[in-house]
Amino acid sequence: MDVMKRVPIKEQEPLVRAKNFEEVCLGYSKEEAMEEAARCLNCKNAQCVKGCPVGIDIPAFIQQVKGGNIEKSYQVIAESSALPAVCGRVCPQESQCEGKCIRGIKGEPVSIGKLERFTADWACENGIKPTPAAEKNKRKVAVIGSGPAGLTCAGDLARLGYDVTIFEALHEAGGVLVYGIPEFRLPKERVVAKEVENVKSLGVKIETNVVIGKAVTIDELIEEEGFEAVFIGSGAGLPKFMGIAGEQANGVFSANEFLTRNNLMKSFKDYDTPISEGKKVVVVGGGNVAMDAARTALRLGAEVHIVYRRSEAELPARVEEVHHAKEEGIIFDLLQNPTEILVDEKGWVRGIRIIKMELGEPDASGRRRPVEIPGSEYEIACDTVIMSLGTSPNPLISSTTEGLDVNRWQCIVAEEENGQTSKAGVFAGGDAVTGAATVILAMGAGKAAAKGIHAYLSAKK
């Protein structure tokens, strides 16, 4: 065994997986996981823990895997994370825990994410559940949204003995985990549904099809329903567009709509919610959501181009997702930007006009600013355009809640360390506060808010 190199992990072959929605990564066996865990140096001052937004005791859980004690390993993770099988699949470990791994200085970092995934999957297959609170205190807390922030906050509060109810606007719990991330990256029934059930096993109740701000307001939850505190983890589901000509044409989608129809409403299985199955699709954007939309369109049978205005070095998507997209045949048109969507006489997309770019001086984000090259415009023929330019929070909740401050992007203003908003007893975190970000950062915000709510309610006794 070469301790400087990771134990390889099996994946579906690119040309096979490009035609199905089965999970790309096949995971470690127990023997492979134990071998990979043996590479961990078990650092006393573990930098990997400092890189984890939810503070998992990474060396401790890996040492248990190394010894073959997988149930104990799961319990170590479950003390800090409500969604380990999810995080092991979709967290950007390369820029967080694995990015700080000492083993990675001279070799390859330990595959922390794949070991977390293995542990959580093993626990699920063997019926292992997180440990619920020994006693309940009967104090009611409402959580709005059942995405990663809401599930984490609810789980942590339930462990502390609170009576927690999650209110979810859609018909299925999971938030972005069910509507935003494709099946081939995050299986819904085998992974997401089981993690939601684990949170419910702690005593959390989930009410679906409840739109806060319409069915009931936050003020009514507090004043009429007896909830002593509320956590807003409603995410950021309002898509952004470029404002260019032709965006209203048939065949133009936001990535949110395209992915929701496929992931939550199963349009790829000939359900009653079909989505246009383009033969040539252009995805505008370079983040993880753009990769998800492009790889989904590919699996529906399209030729797919990703148009991004910066170079590959500036792509915000995870390196692994870009690598997988290239392997599967996605075409990357980099340093290019749309100027117009071309529409036929019946109102359908027939193409997209593109201008080439070059990189200038760095902008406020620290990345070099893309600058148009005059006279470089050309057209790409296509029948579908998917805009993946980010999202912002829906203003419904903030506009129906008295005394809740928002910023100019309609994000709720909340304290980073505890989630406290401008309204007493109301806390918030995740994409509703930061705008679109990662699953693990939303979970970190949910944990911080749970601590804040506990401190707030403890002081109210």
Which segments are poorly predicted (pLDDT under 50) over 5 or more consecutive residues? none
Helix vs. strand class? alpha/beta
Number of helices: 17
Beta fraction of the residues? 15-25%
- Proportion of helical residues: 25-40%
Estimate the mean pLDDT confidence.
94
Q: Report how far the terminal alpha carbons are from each other.
A: 58 Å
Largest sheet: 5 strands, parallel
**Mass-distribution shape:** globular
Rg = 23 Å
How many β-strands, per DSSP? 16
Strand order of the largest sheet: 3-2-1-4-16
Keywords:
five-stranded parallel beta sheet, globular, alpha/beta, 461 residues, single chain, 33% helix
Walkthrough of the structure:
With about 450 residues, the chain is of the alpha/beta class. The protein contains 17 helices and 16 strands. The protein has helices spanning about 15, 30-35, 45-50, 60-65, 70-80, 85-90, 110-125, 150-160, 175-180, 190-200, 220-225, 255-265, 290-300, 320-330, 395-400, 430-435, 440-460; strands at about 140-145, 165, 205, 230, 240, 250-255, 280-285, 305-310, 330-335, 335-345, 350-360, 370, 380, 385, 390, 425-430. The strands form 4 sheets. It has a 5-stranded parallel sheet with strand order 3-2-1-4-16. It has a 5-stranded parallel sheet with strand order 6-14-7-8-9. Strands 10, 11, 12 and 13 form a 4-stranded antiparallel sheet that branches. Strand 7 (about 280-285), helix 13 (about 290-300) and strand 8 (about 305-310) form a beta-alpha-beta unit. Helix 2 (about 30-35) runs antiparallel to helix 7. The longest helix has 22 residues, at about 440-460. It is globular, with a radius of gyration of 23 Å. The model has no long low-confidence stretch (mean pLDDT about 95).
